[in-house]
Amino acid sequence: KYEKLWLLFGITTLLVFTITIGVSAFYMGNQPPSCLVTVDPANVDTTAPFDQPGLKQVGDNQYELIVVASAFNYDVGPEKVIQVPVGSTINFIGTTKDVIHGFEVAGSNANMMLEPGYINTVEATFNKPGKYTIVCNEYCGLGHHLMFATLEVV
Ligand code: CUA
Asked: Cα torsion at 12, 13, 14, 15 (round to 10°)?
């Protein structure tokens, strides 16, 4: 007798979940923060904005950091250390020339994958001064542990 009730409960729950996800994805337009604009991995160096990696100020306390990852390096401009003032919001815009790399600003909520062919973005605000290490958190080969850059909030 109770089996039927549980079965009904299970099916109802499943339906509610499915409908919730459906409404969220198609009606409200929620998408995973990947699969945005595409870029040809072979021509990253000549494709804007990746032909000029590095930090750009786009407003009051607003920055963009163009990141080009490749085994085993982050190209974030001429310097490996990026500096922004306390309270800055950075929109990280990245892609990769070869394999999948990670992009994590340790100590912040900026964490994304860089996938060949795709441009991924993540935004974070830095209200605490300090040195934040940018690390690759996707195993990408023998030099994986050598992939890092530094963000200095001063
Ligand atoms: Cu790049 Cu691990």
From this structure: 50
CA 77 to CA 66: how far, in whole Å? 8
Asked casually if ipTM beats, i.e. exceeds, 0.90, the reply is yes
**CA–centroid distance, residue 125 to ligand 1 (Å):** 24
**What are the structure tokens assigned to 135, written together?**
């690390």
pLDDT along the chain (154 residues), means of 10: 89 90 68 66 92 95 96 91 96 95 95 93 96 96 94 97
Give me the residue spans of the domains in the chain. 1-31, 41-153
User: Are 136 and 148 spatial neighbours (Cβ–Cβ below 8 Å)?
Assistant: yes
- DSSP characters for 1-27? -HHHHHHHHHHHHHHHHHHHHHIIIII
Distance CA 72, CA 54 (A): 17
Q: Looking at the domain that runs over 41-153, which CATH code has it been given?
A: 2.60.40.420
Residue nearest to atom 1 of ligand 1 (CA): 101
CB under 6 Å to ligand 1: residues?
72, 101-102, 136, 138-140, 144, 147
What residue type is assigned to position 140 of the chain?
C
